[in-house]
Write a structure and sequence with these properties.
By secondary structure, the protein is α+β, with helices and mostly antiparallel strands. 15% of the residues lie in helices and 32% in strands. The strands form two sheets. The protein has a five-stranded mixed β-sheet with strand order 2-8-7-4-5. The chain is globular, with a radius of gyration of 21 Å. It starts with a helix and ends in an 18-residue tail after the last strand.
């Protein structure tokens, strides 16, 4: 047998094995308007998980450590929907949680959770507590993708820089009170 024939068989086998063995996913999702989207606007790092069972992970493991992005102003007491940018059509199942974080103190306020926010809705809907106000805060969304099983979950986070503006005094009585704001 010639060397060319042996190399051809080797490469054919390598191609077949590559097709049969699933590679770790390389791109998933991030919040539109997030720090991670701003940090890596034209490559897949913005979609990488922060923890994975063997796949590629984002080079910065906590979105709070990524440079600030464009700030959004949202009203205390309002309900907001933040959409995801989906990479490689990877709409994973799994729970999503949101928190309002003060990066200078590290204090956070739980804003609730939503089942399958990426897979079912491609967005996370949250209600800002009516008494919450802050400048230079961060809305942080965490997703535990369980498409490979709970014991082999992939974890994602995405941060949006926000100012939360106070409601006018006459509106506070009508504001939703689903979440308590703890300082």
């Amino acid at each position: 047998m010639s060397t060319t024939f042996t190399l051809t068989r080797f490469f054919t086998l390598a191609v077949v094995l590559a097709a049969l063995v699933p590679a770790p996913a390389r791109a998933h999702f991030t919040l539109n308007g997030s720090r991670d989207q701003a940090a890596w606007p034209s490559d897949n790092r913005r979609f990488f998980p922060i923890q994975s069972g063997g796949g590629t992970v984002r080079p910065i493991p906590n979105c709070l450590q990524i440079a600030k992005g464009t700030k959004q102003t949202i009203a205390a007491g309002s309900t907001q929907t933040f959409s995801f940018e989906i990479g490689n059509h990877a709409k994973h199942v799994g729970p999503c949680t949101a928190a309002l974080v003060d990066p200078t103190t590290g204090q956070s306020t739980d804003l609730g959770s939503q089942a399958d926010c990426v897979n079912k809705f491609e967005a996370m809907t949250i209600t800002i507590p009516p008494t919450a106000t802050c400048t230079d805060c961060v809305l942080k969304v965490n997703v535990m993708a369980t498409h490979l099983g709970v014991s082999n979950a992939e974890y994602y986070d995405s941060c949006i820089d926000v100012d939360v503006a106070a409601l006018p005094a006459h509106s506070r009585a009508l504001a939703p009170t689903a979440f308590k704001y703890a300082r």
